[in-house]
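Colleagues,

For the teaching module next term, I've prepared a clean inverse folding example: a structure given as tokens, and then the sequence designed for it. I'd like students to try predicting residues themselves before seeing the answer, so please don't circulate the second half yet.
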């Protein structure tokens, strides 16, 4: 599944995939979706630091999922570990180029 803010045509966000609130809502949608076992971040995550003060960690704690990311996603990995006692994975960087666009 892909987040709504994955591809944004609005140039106002430059190298972010949407507003902080939109990106956080994507995370919440993935995290609460019972058909999803893991959230793999598709890019390095510049802008994750901007989300830390906005994240409701009690909401995240309700679901045990895998979070995998790389580079600037590390701030989320560490926060999920510290605040929610979730095991996270610093792993391979995926990109949207791996997505089958025909679906």
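(Answer key — instructors only)
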């Amino acid at each position: 599944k892909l987040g709504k803010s994955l591809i944004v045509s609005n140039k106002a966000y430059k190298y972010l995939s949407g507003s902080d609130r939109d990106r956080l809502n994507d995370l919440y949608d993935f995290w609460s979706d019972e058909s999803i076992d893991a959230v793999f971040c598709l890019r390095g995550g510049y802008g994750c630091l901007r989300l830390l003060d906005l994240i409701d960690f009690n909401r995240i704690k309700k679901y045990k999922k895998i979070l995998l990311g790389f580079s600037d996603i590390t701030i989320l990995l560490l926060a999920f570990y510290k605040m929610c006692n979730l095991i996270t994975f610093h792993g391979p960087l995926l990109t949207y180029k791996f997505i089958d666009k025909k679906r």
